[in-house]
Amino acid sequence: MSNSKTAIVILNWNGAPMLEKYLPTLIRCSVSPYIEIIVADNASTDSSERLMREQFPQIPFIRLDRNYGFAEGYNRALQYVKADYYMLLNSDVEVSMGWLEPMITYLDRNPQVAACQPKIHQIAERDMFEYAGAAGGYIDRLGYPFCRGRIFGTIEKDNGQYDTDAELFWATGAAMLVRSSVYWEAGGLDADFFAHMEEIDLCWRMRARGYSIRLVPQSTVYHVGGGTLGAEKPFKTYLNFRNNALLLYKNLPENELHKIMRRRYLLDIVAAFAYLLKFKPGHMNAIFRAHRHARKMKKQFAAKRAQNMAATTVTRIEQRVGYSILWKYSICGHKTFSELLKF
Questions:
Q1: 259-308 confidence digits (pLDDT tens)
Q2: d(CA 216, CA 224)
Q3: At how many degrees (to 10) do helices 257-277 and 281-311 cross?
Q4: Contact indicator for 26, 33 with CB cutoff of 8 Å
Q5: Could you read off the pLDDT of 324-333 as tens digits, one per residue?
Q6: Tens digit of pLDDT for each residue in 175-185?
Q7: 33-66 burial: b if 16+ Cβ within 10 Å, else e
Q8: DSSP 226-293
Q9: Which of 160, 172, 29 is CA-nearest to residue 101?
Q10: For residues 6 and 277, what is the distance between their CA atoms, to the nearest angstrom?
Q11: What is the chain's percent helix, strand, coil content, to nearest 5?
């Protein structure tokens, strides 16, 4: 790969239709001698490689030998990429002219900012925020992620209410611009997550090392979402609950670790039986399997936690809020981020 200032890297797995639909717009809207577009492929079995060879021969194509998942797939692909900034971009994202420049300029001017994201809108309803990132991610004290513009299943219309440069806890992996040096300094994405919440883990590590993560609202992209694992699949439930437990174990400060882990386990048991009441036993079983596997993985995560704690310089991060978002949402009725700010 050539040495460019910014490398837009799409990690693909059986996403030929998405590449065919959205890659032409990305190419047209990202013309610059300082920007390179690269497609990395997680050993797809569809027509992705033929599509790239026949329709996009000018785009470098990295074929991995098997499906490593989102986290390790990116780690392996990025080893071949030389750039100051990596733009991690999903294949099902549509961009528009001038989408990338505000974020590049922001990182250029703010060396302590490790990563940033644009506003993420839905493709189907283009004035609505999209679930996977919205206007930037936060997390509550019990480890539940939420966004400016999206709390659980409540998604807001973008009326300009979040058109401010804002500090975030995490930036979405659907469209994250990250400094390559900090990406590797923090250890990259954690391969043991495979998929889901790996970007939150990476961002937590970067924030704990004293770096900033920001929303750049001058940039907006449009995301299909849910392209790889549908929301109703038990495997997605399994990954979310397992990875959330691992996320907390790996990153929580020592004085909070055991108390928070116990509380989350009890809440996850409640969530499991809630699925049973909804006649979704597959999801209930996925939660129990997730916690069983997370306990088995704690041994290999102990070394990661120790290394992470040794590198931590910041334990109090404001965007890891002190309240329970579950309580605020379900009991207090605060369904939007805008409502949270009033209390």
A1: 999 999 999 999 999 999 999 999 999 999 999 999 999 988 999 999 99
A2: 20
A3: 160
A4: no
A5: 999 999 999 9
A6: 999 999 999 99
A7: eebbbbbbbbebeeebbebbeeebeebbbbebee
A8: -SSS-TT-HHHHHHHHHHHHHHHHHHS-TTTHHHHHHHHHHHHHHHHHHHHHTT-HHHHHHHHHHHHH
A9: 29
A10: 49
A11: 40, 20, 40
Q: Cα 191 to the chain's mean position, in Å?
A: 14
Distance CA 218, CA 294 (A): 39
The residue type at 210: G
Which residues 6+ apart lie within 8 Å of 214 measured at CB?
Answer: 106, 110, 113, 115, 116, 117, 136, 165, 166, 167, 168, 171
Q: For residue 324, with 0-12 CB atoms within 10 Å meaning exposed, 13-18 middle and 19 or more buried, which class applies? A: middle
Taking the whole predicted model, whether its pTM rises above 0.90 is answered as yes
User: What are the two backbone dihedrals, phi and then psi, of residue 103, each rounded to the nearest 5 degrees?
Assistant: -75, -40
